[in-house]
Amino acid sequence: MTPDATEAEIHRLEDVVDLGKFLQARRARVNPGDVGLREDARRRVPGLRREELALLAGVSVDYYTRLEQGRAKHPSDQVLDAVARALRLDETTRAHLHRLAGNSRLSPLQARTGVRPSLQTMLAAIDAFPALIMNHRQDVLASNRLARLLYGGFGWDLEANPNFVRLLFDDDSREYFPDWDSVCALETVAQLRKMAALFPDDAAMTSLIGELSVRHRFFAELWARAEVRDCNIGFVRFEHPMVGALELYKDQFRVADGSGQMLVALTAAPGTDDYDKLALLGAER
């Protein structure tokens, strides 16, 4: 947390695991017209009113109000699923809602600080494409040579074990990612929110979110949207200082040990310009 962070700003970040704040944020994002309700000029706040959400979910207004206020203990799976449908949540966000509500079927996860030797061996075997291992906070725990060359062109030192989110929200990073606003920042924050709920006792995660919210207004705005995503596959476009425009396919492989670690690989199909540019980058000494 930065020295100039106020107590109010710190408390505002407690919505990491707050079911009520999550429901309020998602309720504000539902357009009444999209769910068959009349839109009128008397609405003073965006989204649905509590009574409208309760009607759509088939629960009483009193019960839904208690749910948002944290006074409804242990809501049933049926109620949570009904609320999720009313809020038009996808499967990833629905699971996030269940976890925030304390669904006992979802086992707690335990973070680990070191990278397993088998993962290090796998990383070392990948030499034609950039690859790295990150934890649930998106700290870079390990990287291969091509990943260090790729991101080193931006001045990023992956061997120093930096945090990818901090690097991405640095003011200079926008020039290296053509889709910074529309894809990179949005997906990064949405994934961070999901992991924050999976590891609610991680003080370093809470501190990271607080720091970024204070330092970067756009991060705070994205965080307030309560977006939750997996972001395991997709394309990443770069504007690299050495090889120019580069579009790589991203795959994230979650380690199935509850540690929150993941292997991230960036690839290009052989015979394409992007593949040749990666080979050119790898030829650097």
What does this protein structure show overall?
The chain is of the alpha+beta class and 285 residues long. The chain folds into 2 domains: 7-100, 434 Repressor (Amino-terminal Domain) (Orthogonal Bundle); 117-282, Beta-Lactamase (2-Layer Sandwich), CATH 3.30.450.180. Helix content is 44%, strand content 12%. The protein contains 13 helices and 5 strands. A 5-stranded antiparallel β-sheet has the order 2-1-5-4-3, with helices on both faces. The chain is elongated. The two termini are 38 Å apart. The model is unreliable at 1-13 and 104-108 (pLDDT under 50). Residues 47-94 form the HTH cro/C1-type domain. This is Helix-turn-helix transcriptional regulator. InterPro entries: Cro/C1-type_HTH, Lambda_DNA-bd_dom_sf, MLTR_LBD. One of its GO terms (molecular function) is DNA binding.
Describe the oligomeric state of these chains in a short phrase.
Answer: single chain
* Helix content estimate: 40-55%
Class of the largest domain, according to the CATH hierarchy? Alpha Beta
Strand arrangement, largest sheet?
Answer: 2-1-5-4-3
Question: Tell me about the biggest sheet?
Answer: 5 strands, antiparallel
Under the CATH scheme, the architecture of the largest domain is 2-Layer Sandwich
Question: In the CATH scheme, what's the topology name of the largest domain?
Answer: Beta-Lactamase
- Classify the secondary structure makeup into a structural class: alpha+beta
Order of helices and strands: HHHHHHHEEHHHHHEEEH
Q: How much of the sequence is in beta strands? A: 5-15%
Overall shape: it is elongated
Low-confidence stretches: 1-13, 104-108
Number of strands: 5
- How many domains is the backbone divided into? 2
Please state the average pLDDT score. Answer: 85
Give the radius of gyration: 21 Å
InterPro entries: Cro/C1-type_HTH, Lambda_DNA-bd_dom_sf, MLTR_LBD
Organism: Glycomyces lechevalierae
Pfam families: HTH_31, MLTR_LBD
Protein name: Helix-turn-helix transcriptional regulator
